[in-house]
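Review box. Two proteins, two foldings.
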Amino acid sequence: MMDKRTEFYKKLKKKLKKDTKFPSKYLFKFIIPSDEEKMNQIESMFNHAGAVITKTHSKTGKFVSLSVLVIMKTADDIIVKYMEAEQVEGIISL
């Protein structure tokens, strides 16, 4: 049986291939603990991609919401970015 993550990525890939004409702008959304190092990790993932990154701090200041708008070449590239992002401790991908 596939785990939830594998299942999630399979469904996402299918949906992307169906709904998206590549290359295409894609909006990644992440919530991370308010931590400079973690923000830098996410930013460096998209460093050379010409991404537009918007940060919104939570009311309590404990979390940061990051929206990353970037042109992606394929559905697989999007999946790879999500998997890379999973390496950031405490991240939530939306």
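Next protein.
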Amino acid sequence: MFGKQVSFVGIFMLLILSQWLAEDIRAFNVFSYITLRAMLAALTALAISFMVGPIMIRKLAAYKIGQSVRDDGPQTHLIKAGTPTMGGALILVSIVITTLLWADLNNTYIWVVLLTTLGFGVIGWVDDYRKVVDRNPKGLSAGTKFFWQSVIAIVVAFYLALTAEIPAQTDLIVPFFKEIAIPLGVTGFVVLTYFVIVGTSNAVNLTDGLDGLAIMPTVMIAAALAIFAYLSGHIIFANYLAIPYIPNAGELAVFCGALAGAGLAFLWFNTYPAEVFMGDVGALALGAALGVVTVIVRQEIVLVIMGGVFVIEALSVMLQVASFKLTGRRVFRMAPLHHHFELKGWKENQVVVRFWIITIILVLIGLSTLKLR
């Protein structure tokens, strides 16, 4: 055993190290199980975030990287001005390190999801940096932000379409029905993937307006997607449940575990009254991560169900803008929808917890599609 050599990369990636040790100590074979590594990823991401979080918050405060608040928003939000933002970088650091430690890096899906998440994170980071450091209230222009989101999403969509080996990897699966799968072809798949990734990214960003409002639904959906990923990547379970079998998709459960763990740790600091906000660097990245995992495991319609809060928040903005431009009237007192309820008299914590409860119900409905077919 001691005559073997292990590279630095092998030591850094705990999965590789455990595989090396398992050649002589059978107990280390337990780390080959995706379920265990997914749980360890969640705990590792929690630990990293708890250790790094206070340090990062102090640094953000020291550099005066603080949140700006809309003048036309609820007056109770004025006290939030100056709260450290760009805390989403903490989530990304935790996710990346944890995934590199516990995931099988020979799995191309892991790299697709990681690079997509980081790509959208970079877009959000530049936007946040311009707003809070350069003091440019507009940050990145909407057109520039949308352009780069589109570039990443289209590249990812074409890669997944062109590397698909079986129809199940590109068909649209209709939940609650065993044998309804709509062939999309390359064009249809690319279009759908584009809208899922970009749409989810921006929907999460729009929802991130109250303390803890966006991060907890993200954690719950990530946990549910971990289950979908594991079952989709397991041929026996997939056949039993009549869901599409996606080879190698099970490894994404490790990434989702890391996301859920990092998100829970961030909630510790982001719960009311928030010590830090995630900013666009976090919201755009996490939304894109949920979107690309959903596409890989072929559960786009289920994501719409589980992410109902994100969908409603995004629709409220679109309805508000369309109504005001067409009629000069507003549908809601303020958009996104969470501000509408605040202006109606709901306390911030009431809005947040009630939206969490709605998400729990929707996630359970989404998970029920595994069996109700």
